[in-house]
Amino acid sequence: MRIFGIRWEWPPVFDKMREASLRWFGHCGKQCLCEFKLSHLGKDQVLHDPKIVGLADAVEERINVIVNSGRIYRCTWRRNPSSSLANDCITAMAEGLNSTLYNHFLVLLWRNGDQTYLSGADMTADSEWESFQSVIKRICKESGHTSEKLSDSVSCSSWEFLINSRYHKQYSKSYPISGFSETSIDQQGLYSPGSSMGTSDSGGSSFYAELVTETLDTLHTVYESLKLDNLRKRDLGLLVVLLCDIAAFLREDCYLDHYIRDFPCLSKGHEVSLTSTSKRIPPSLFRWLESCLKHGCSSASISHLPSLIFRDGSSVVNWGRKIVSFYSLLCGAELSGKRLSSGVSCAIASGSFNTPEELTVLSMVGERVGLQQLDLLPAGVSLPLRDALDKCRDSPPIDWPAAAYVLLGREDLAFSHLAYSRKSVELEPHMNVNMTCMSAPYMLNLHPVTIPSSISDTIQSEDNKLEDVDSVEGYVADGMEHIFNSGIQLRYGRDLRLNEVRRLLCSARPVVIQTPVNPTASDQDLQQAQLWQLAQRTTALPFGRGAFTLATTCTLLTEALMVPKLILAGRLPAQQNATVNLDPNVRNVQELKSWPEFHNAVAAGLRLAPPQGKMSRTWILYNKPEEPSVVHAGLLLALGLHGHLRVLTITDIYQYYSQEHESTTVGLMLGLAASYRGTMQPAISKSLYVHIPSRHPSSFPELELPTLLQSAALLSVGLLYEGSAHPQTMQILLGEIGRRSGGDNVLEREGYAVAAGFSLGLVALGRGEDAPGFVDSLVDRLFLYIGGKEPQNERSHLFVPSIDELNRSAGQIMDGTAVNVDVTAPGATIALALMFLKTESELVYSRLSVPQTHFDLHYVRPDFIMLRVIARNMIMWSRVHASEEWIQSQIPEVIQNGVKSLGDTMSDTDEINADAFVQAYVHIVVGACISLGLRYAGSRDGNLQELLYKYALYFLNEIKPVSVSSVAFPKGLSRYIDRGSLETCLHLIVLSLCVVMAGSGHLQTFKLLKYLRGRNSADGHLSFGNQMAVSLAIGFLFIGGGKQTFSTSKSSIAALLITLYPRLPTGPNDNRCHLQAFRHLYVLATEARWVQTVDVDSGLPVYCPLEVTVRETEHYAETSFYEVTPCILPERAVLKAVRVCGPRYWSQVINHIPEEKPWSSGDKGDALSSGILYVKRKVGACSYVDDPAGCQSLLSRAMHKVFGLTRLRASAASRDCQDGDMVDQLISTFSSNPSLISFAQLCCDPNWNSRSDIDFQEFCLQVLFECVSKDRPALLQVYLSLYTTIGSMVDRVTSSSSNLQDTLFISSLKIALAYNNSLLSKRSTSSKEGIVQSTFLGSVQKRVEEILSSSLEFQKDFSEYMKYGRWPTEDYGRRASTLLSWYVQWYNVPSPFQVKRALDKIKAINTSSSVPLLHLLFPTTDVTALCEINRVGFCSRG
Length: 1438
Fold this sequence. Notes:
This protein is α+β, with helices and mostly antiparallel strands. Among the domains are: 2-163, no CATH class; 460-594, no CATH class; 613-666, no CATH class; 676-848, no CATH class; 854-1061 and 1077-1085; 1090-1175, no CATH class; 1179-1273. The longest helix has 28 residues, at 521-548.
């Protein structure tokens, strides 16, 4: 109802006031409806006459009270009773009674006590329940005195005044109230039940009879629901007393018998009559649950369920409805929408299911029932649900919500689901609440607070600081101090190879120069020569360091970027670490360091990986120096390669260009192109074309731009238009291949043509003949640039330059129809390779032929042959195989025969032909090795590693014999080829090997790289290019600290080919044939396929075995192999599934759909994209870090040893405290569950042991062992509950000292036994046993039956009960009534009047034994009880 616009479901009572005392009277007109006392109003107490002058700002249960002093008090009132039992009963009556009956109930509720009750500010829960009881008793009283009309009442209560008031009439017109009408209010304004149903006394009598009957049914529903809550036993005891009174008043003997069976202490004062006319049998949830388990949901009678439980929206029996729905689904109920075939509704969470147990788990999630709620259930009732959770725990479906995994105890799957769900951001608050709801309360503190390793590992420790023991400088910031985080260190364990890599790639310390102790003048010249050689190596180190530290640390946006120093000086350990610098009079040191400083800054910038995924524009400009520098230029390139330059505005870009700084312009153009890769962004495109003078209009002022700027601009255009096949851009770039670069440096035109070729290949990357327009003419022109004939194509006019272009093309690299193929061939070959990448084009493949005759060998340069081999294999991608036979198949027969005949004295091969054969052979082999490196990039193929390693040793032995090789390779090639070419080929093979083994840290390959790096000038040709190759190879082998690897997508292969372009520079500033900044584009080919397992309980990275399955390909069938995390997974295109295996962690399977798609860390739909896989360790097993061999995980042997010690300790007079601590220490080693640890500590407590018998102690230890070994901590409560129940029954029988006040545990135990029997009947079809041992439950059943048969007076009590419905009187004591209630509950004996009716029918048949007939009438009653009934029946007849 509503009073003053507020709905009052319960008489409101203020319970929070300030100081002093004051009263508030609620009036309607002149009638006082209710009175509230405000106490302790503080300073207002000094007022002579404090008054409330206003009420304001009412919000739900709070309102402002304004007194005459001007002060305002915020007051709280109760809309609902503080007694949960009273509140549930009133709510049940609101939901169960019809509107007329409920409204009359409210009338009586308000009339009971009126002013006195409503003004009680100190109302307690007990008094509220007593008030509710008085209302119900008043209803019963009124039903017995209906002859006296209610209208004769003299008193006029506030409720009656309100109903008769003008306010109510006006309010009723606006807000009609169901159940009230004008006819239901008599002339005096009193609500009369007879006025709406008739004026006779019989009408009032039937009304009250209906009200009392429905009240009994409604409150009985509350009673049955409370029986499923262990924490409401006190409320249950209060409610059953009231129900007994109501049932006795209504002469509902079946109801009364039902309550006395549950609470035998109520037998005093109540007697069941056998002459009752009522045939109503009370509903029983326990009876229905047991029947459902025994016979299935379809066979369980719906009459056993209260009618209110089928009503949607009923809150008071919501708990009972949930349990009924769970049992219904578990026993095979059919689901139709939200309604089950059993008649109840149920919310089902989203997810797939194949078994009833899985559907039950989803319903528990949908109804928000977690482990905390399961603990409220009686042990037997919770057992089937816990068993369903246990059966689904091993391998639940992968599409379940996170809360379902938490309910199963699979927090690893829950965290993975939340981390990789597409809607995790939006659903995170709801998911966190739901997960907390599903967790047990004692497990909430175990939810780990994890910190991403990329953030936590930036907290540097002193152990990560690199110190030189021979140097006085101490700590040196080398840009790699952050690399030793927890994940990377776990990857290599106690291996020190990362420390060695850090030492090899450090350029921030002076290098060691070995000289005599007393140097002479000639020794100083030797020092300078040696220092110059070492400077070549030092300037190449940033290439490898950038790869080694790629994306391994986070950006601190409040700090500037720290770039490690690039020191070219040396130190003399023999002379107390004296420093030696390069002589500036001999060489220009600053010019030597210009580009190396650029690469050093690139390496420093590549290590940044912002956790937000986006760099701040403010931070970039914050690091911008006042004067342009190569350091900031390198940073721009690094940020661009990570895709972070998109935050720059157009004004920022042109401000950089306006500085006219060469390195800054190169870094900015390449960085912008990489950030806007494949987007064709118009503004960026215009800024790039400005740096290509050949594309300027004739009216454009002439610009003198360095060739390397033009080369960088060309490649940037290719990156910007990558894969677009833009016709106009392709036409422009094709012309640039044959055009001489601007400027006076003619020697750099080859690099310009190569950049144009790469750019053209990127624009038409992998499009082949699918590119729109003039593909045939374009291919013909490219083959012309390679060295073919002039194409005779009718569409060749498309490439005829205009007059304006001819005026600007005076530098065209053509004399008439002749083409300078020495300049154009590399670029054109690369363009064809990228255009037809993976297209399997036979036409282009055949035209890119390798020389097959002696004449062709002299016509084509050897390095061009190598490019052709690479291009042919990139086109025929699927034909590339990792075998030595495939490499030999790349070599034409004429070359193989020529090489074989080198050692033949009878051969007529001259010196010139021999040189040609050897040159071609070497470059073809190297080209094949590079092709293999590109084809199997990042695959870590063991066979290919051995093959490439073998070829590397072969070339190394040709330079200088270092090992004995049994491979039948041609010998003595060094006589026909210069050493520099052999060195270049060796380092290209090593570089290809490291591309294959990228991120693996392969030890054998690393040893080879260490050897190559440590060689001096006598061992090999130590050029800058070779040192750069070694540095890059080391970086590739440990790329990203082992967290990154290379992809084989088209875009990645193109980026790798640009990086591996087989023309190595001769010096730090050599950009003639290939711009050195292009060597950093390998970043575009990397992908983080790293996966690291994290223990969900501790939040720490751990070792864990994985079974990885790759799909079937044309080369191999579907294959599975094993890895130990942290590890690198195969590419997305072949990865099919990943399974956590091994005995120490719970299994989980992550299915993967193989697809040609980059492995992006931002793809939240992929469970492996973030690199974190949460796992859960099984109880009883240690981690692989603590126990690598598994010797410490022998839990059973250790526990049995503890059992023996405990047994001996319990029987001894004195106890050894040290032995007593073994149990809890052992449990804490294998489990982090607080309940198990606390129980183990209790078992070790001497005081507890002294108060308990040895059998119970051993039982506790055995239960503890089973819970730990099977990882079922919830079983501890179930076992102890069942065991202690039997013990209490024994105590009750023997000494009457038990605290058992009810027999509800009997029903719970019967449900557990029914479920066990159902499992035993299904054992033939399922090998999965129940979570509780069936032998234990069988022994419990046997023990209960022994207790029930031990009473001597039982037969007499049972006879009295069956004959007369009489329970044992007080003279026999409560023990007799308790035993009888146990018996009738255990054997499911029907009520006495039911038995009397059955016996009356059977006696008419005149049979000798009534047991078979009784069994037909009472099929659920045990035969033992039927025999007793038969005995009682025949005795009475006799």
